[in-house]
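for the recovery benchmark. tokens below, seq after
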């Protein structure tokens, strides 16, 4: 378990400053959107803090969740953290996205939320006070309770009172989201090739073609005939259904412009949302 904690706690890497990307995206919101963002983030922070406190108070959920974390693989732990961080990022990209939002299959159920919150807390404690976790896992219950009581009460008291009390931890969390991609080896410049989510594909519209001589489906190179039902991607490029469905089973990008559809791959989805932040703020030259 310490491996994933170390990976999550790693220091800043060489690339562009992710805080600038996040802040530019936040400043692009209008007043109402910013207020809605702060309200939704504040509400989620409170919900997660209540959930974590009840987990730490429970004499059954805590040991079961810790046992669960000790038995799952490193990859599974990385997925838990990634899904938690993805949910953080979607609060912001919700205001910037024009395509269907992230698949509900990536959302955490209550058991996974227990595991993700405990794992996140272990990461935080490891980073702030590494010696605190030197005892056996059986002793961590008291250590974690003490840590939360000492460090969270003051923070909680400020939540909802001012935007900065929410904004600062939110920006920190979204930056961790970007660094986590690097830590697990998914932050390369190349966008990973992942399938589009089924939920995103089934809601793609059918577009009846009027007169459009000379336009072709770039997958099969055949000219699009008038009166034919075509699949329209959110970027407005059109393809034969029989051509684009197999394509989207392998890649979530438009064959013409590389517009990305949502994916059920959590790391691919975080990459996609980061791409939205960068593009939205006229930072197309910055690659993630
Ligand atoms: Zn075609
Ligand atoms: Zn396109």
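predicted aa per position
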């Amino acid at each position: 378990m310490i491996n994933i904690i170390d990976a999550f706690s790693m220091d800043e890497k060489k690339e562009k400053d992710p805080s600038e990307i996040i802040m530019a995206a936040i400043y692009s919101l209008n007043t109402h959107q910013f207020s809605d963002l702060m309200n939704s983030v504040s509400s989620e922070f409170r919900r997660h803090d209540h959930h974590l406190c009840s987990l730490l108070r429970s004499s059954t959920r805590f040991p079961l969740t810790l046992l669960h974390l000790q038995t799952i693989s490193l990859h599974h732990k990385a997925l838990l953290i990634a899904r938690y961080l993805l949910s953080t990022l979607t609060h912001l990209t919700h205001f910037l996205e024009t395509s269907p939002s992230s698949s509900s299959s990536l959302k955490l159920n209550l058991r996974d939320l227990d595991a993700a919150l405990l794992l996140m807390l272990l990461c935080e404690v490891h980073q702030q006070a590494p010696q605190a976790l030197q005892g056996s896992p059986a002793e961590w219950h008291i250590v974690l309770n003490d840590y939360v009581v000492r460090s969270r009460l003051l923070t909680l008291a400020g939540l909802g009172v001012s935007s900065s009390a929410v904004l600062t931890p939110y920006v920190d969390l979204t930056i961790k989201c970007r660094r986590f991609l690097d830590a697990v080896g998914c932050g390369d410049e190349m966008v990973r090739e992942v399938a589009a989510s089924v939920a995103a594909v089934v809601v793609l519209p059918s577009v009846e073609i009027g007169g459009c001589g000379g336009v072709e489906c770039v997958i099969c190179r055949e000219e699009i005939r008038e009166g034919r039902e075509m699949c329209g991607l959110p970027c407005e490029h059109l393809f034969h259904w029989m051509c684009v469905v197999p394509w989207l089973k392998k890649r979530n990008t438009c064959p013409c412009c590389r517009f990305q559809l949502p994916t059920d791959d959590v790391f691919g989805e975080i990459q996609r949302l980061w791409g939205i932040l960068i593009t939205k703020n006229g930072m197309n030259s910055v690659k993630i």
